[in-house]
Amino acid sequence: MNSILPGHLFLIDFSTVAQDYSFIFYLAILTLAFSVVLRTTKLFIIQLLLFLALGFPAISSFTAVFAALQVGLTTVTIYKYLKALDRNYNLVIEKTHEIPPNITSGSQNGSQSSFF
Asked: Which spans are transmembrane here (predicted)?
């Protein structure tokens, strides 16, 4: 009887990636979480596909390419996250009238649907 082991669903093996490339694995999880925080579905789908591609043992020859893509995507995501934090800080300062309105000038209220 064939039993499916945890982590081997659909022939995806994250145990090798988690052991051999633990830093890349943590970056992938971090980027996946930041994509939810930044409310962007495109980044979430791209990151999910990249995360799943890291787990396929059949394409392990491309692991270095996927690792480089992951580092680049994480760097861009962290940059966008820091930009969103700065925008939020400036928005709070504008709403408390500490600086002249820039984001909330005109009829804009400062809301944004996605931060990426």
From this structure: 21-38, 44-73
